[in-house]
Design goal:
Radius of gyration: 17 Å
Mean pLDDT: 96
Helix content: 25-40%
Oligomer: single chain
Low-confidence stretches: none
């Protein structure tokens, strides 16, 4: 297994915390986000890790994340200001294709503003589908910590028989959100070929499409996407208030979203 971390964006909602460094170098629980991610991916068996850089790319090195030199490879998204995570993923395409040609059988793709344990990556790796996403069944508790009304930010998510059926809509009630898409994706060489072909057909529209919209498009075309459930033990960092609330929650030994346990 190999891994790709999509880390090109600035994270402007973190304000001054990202004035002089990329979002993935912001610290939580004593470590940069990127270090937590790399340690989880290595712990799950990732043989190689690629970081897609953009904003302040010269700063984004293994040493800056508290890792050993050579801990990850890099590639640039030169249009990071005008594009999105899907565009960043396409920047990793040549690297992925070389690794697949050399015999790697799957890749984990991760957002760079989330933290999670190796067990979630292993659960995702065990899915037999060419494409799969991890989803948190305990999402509501995390969203209630972050938002007064969890439905203001939540998106619809529905799965049956281990397959994703709906994602990315505006829910009217909690029942329409069976889980929360976490920003962790697994692709095999066949799954990557499906992504690449669909993006080629979209053309310039790729830069205007978010990842959940893209996943919705894939399943709408009849492409199978596995849905792998996990129970808590992760979180995403969107703003300074998230950081404050997480640090407070981490003081409790029973917080179910503590990824360090």
């Amino acid at each position: 297994m190999i891994a790709v971390l999509l880390a090109a964006g600035r994270g402007s909602r973190l304000r001054e915390l990202t004035a002089r460094k990329p979002k993935c170098l912001v610290e939580i629980a004593g470590k940069p986000l990127l270090r937590w991610q790399c340690e989880a991916l290595r712990g799950a068996g990732a043989a190689r890790i690629l970081v897609v850089r953009g904003y302040l790319s010269h700063i984004l090195t293994p040493e800056a994340a508290g890792l050993e030199a050579g801990s990850f490879e890099t590639v640039e998204n030169p249009r990071w200001e005008q594009s999105n995570m899907l565009s960043s993923l396409l920047c990793a395409g040549p690297w992925l294709e070389r690794a697949f040609a050399e015999g790697q059988d799957a890749a984990t793709i991760s957002y760079s503003d989330i933290v999670y344990p190796p067990e979630h990556v292993r659960a995702l790796s065990a899915c037999a589908e060419p494409l799969a996403v991890a989803c948190d069944l305990c999402w509501e508790q995390l969203w209630r910590l972050r938002f007064n009304d969890p439905l203001l930010d939540a998106e619809t998510f529905r799965q049956t028989d281990g397959l994703l059926r709906e994602i990315g809509g505006k829910p009217q009630n909690i029942a329409e959100v069976q889980g929360q898409y976490m920003g962790l994706i697994r692709v095999t060489p066949h799954g990557w070929a499906q992504i690449r072909q669909t993006c080629a057909e979209l053309g310039e529209a790729v830069a205007r499409m978010d990842m959940t919209g893209f996943l919705r498009l894939l399943i709408g075309r009849g492409i199978r996407v596995g849905a792998v459930p996990v129970q808590g033990r992760w979180c995403e960092v969107d703003n300074q208030e998230d950081l404050r609330r997480y640090e407070q929650a981490l003081r409790s030994e029973s917080w179910p979203h503590d990824w360090r346990r």
